[in-house]
Amino acid sequence: MTVHDGLVVEPFAGPGGLSEGLRLAGWQGRSLGIEHDHAACRTATGAGHWRVQADAARFPLGHLRGAVDGVAGGPPCPPWSTAGKRLGLLDQDAVLARADALATGRTPATVTWHDPRSPLCAEPMRYVHALRPRWVVLEQVPAVLPLWRHMARLLDALGYSTWTGVLSAEEYGVPQTRQRAVLTASLDTPVRRPAPTHQRFRKNTPPQLELLPRWRSWGEALGVTDRVIVSNYGTGGDPADRGERRFDEPAATITGKAGRNRVVQARRARGYDGALREPDEPSLAILGSDDNGDLRLGTATGDRPLTIREALQLQTFPAHYPLHGTREQQWTQVGNAVPPLLAAAVLRPLIHPARAAAAA
Q: Is 211 within a domain?
């Protein structure tokens, strides 16, 4: 199979972060996304992605065996996310045992879960056992890295070359410092950490004199030169200490609650280039969207919320990417998606194995 005639199966496909990443990486075959949420399915199909609304844990796979090039998925993260109760940590041993069973086609033991979503993280091993794909990509919050390492050992035993680690999105051109635990596996080429395209961001540290370009700032992404994003989350767990990112820095992680972040006028903002921007210097910014989802542009003033269209761009989706569902559902979709640029960096070496081998 090739990039032109292959099939990728995406369990837990959501609104299309990995699907868009496949497009950016040059995949020209088919991609079947399996997603239980109706609004996310409508969003993805509106963008031209193939979706089946179904429970990924119950979706039948036997009819697809022999036709699948790759499996790419991001199981739900709330059981492990620092934004939630992290009950997945209490389920971790049971999830590892479930992955062992699914990898060999055995029926997993019945478990009383602390979080009913926890077992979904083991589900990709059912897809690997049933479909025998040429390659696999999994992504989740950093706390899931021990599970990915365990699953990498299972894949090693099946003949895959594997890599696991935590990637920081700004090192791949994404204008935010989102971190994701990633597993990649391939039967066709040795896999390794995707090569960064940009420098790592370090707060209050100027870019280094390196060969790589510096990170991409949220101000560059949105056309803003005199603003600060004030986070909805407290730094270090202190609700009163709201994190701030200047226009010349990447944004913090875009979450489903990012609409509570504020974009405020910088009283005096000095960029890393040394230029001092005064607050009366206007900047063209995205102020929101009308009822049809079209962007409204104008000179931003004062204190305002981050808009969902801005959040889409900070996630590296196209600005006019279709969104369906209630506003809360739309924010959840945007916040939960993997940034397409990051996805493309991970996927590209797997869907072009000959090119990856030549570059090694």
A: no
